[in-house]
Amino acid sequence: MKRVILAGMTALAMVTSMVAAHAADLSRRHAMPVKAPVYAPLYNWTGAYVGLNGGGAWGHSDWSGTTGTSGTNLSGGLVGGTLGYNWQAGQAVYGVEGDIDWSNIRGTTNGVPCTTSCETRNNWLGTARGRIGYAFDRVLPYVTGGVAFGNVKASPATYAGINDTRAGWTLGGGVEVGLVGPWTAKAEYLYVDLGKANCGAGNCAVSSDVDFHTSVLRAGVNYRF
């Protein structure tokens, strides 16, 4: 009797093992394919924003005339406002941005064609740019470029000089970070070239072309809607 019971138990164990193995094999063969997870950003950059910015600038201005060329280094600060809009598609962020700043960027030269001390000054500076960035959730590095505009004031010490509004170009990049609620903070670099303004002999003693190009490093805060 014991032998019969032992043989029965052994047979039952073997059948159970075979059924379990077959069930596991069916499970593997009929398992549903697993799809890669779709990227779902936690922070959405889409929308309009306004902000404030401020920083400093350094650059160079050349005075060029028939008697020669002399240059001056430029430096100064600037502060102003920003308006923009972003569109986010996946992790790519596309945007447009404009800003207008009061500035005090200036420098002085004493060489020819100046007969006396000659100052180059910029009192206001604006840009209208496109932005392309790649979002790492709340961190958005970007490149930017577009049109720059502002005044170039050329002032010899004993002559009237000129105050010419110029349009040029700008190119740069930066990084913006999402803070609490609708607030973001950014830091950016822009290279700005406003081309050349002409100061005629009646205003500058010797007819001179005065160029203006500068690097801008600034920070800002934005409020997103």
Write the layout of secondary structure elements.
Layout: H1 2-29, E1 47-65, E2 68-89, E3 92-109, E4 118-134, E5 139-156, E6 162-178, E7 183-199, H2 201-204, E8 208-224
Antiparallel strand pairs: 1-2, 1-8, 2-3, 3-4, 4-5, 5-6, 6-7, 7-8
Brief write-up:
With 225 residues, this protein is mainly β.
Please give a structural write-up.
The chain is mainly β and 225 residues long. The protein folds into two domains: 34 residues; 178 residues, Porin. It has two helices and eight strands; from the N terminus they run αβββββββαβ. Strands 1-2-3-4-5-6-7-8 form an eight-stranded antiparallel β-barrel. The longest helix has 28 residues. The N and C termini lie far apart (86 Å). The N terminus is likely disordered.
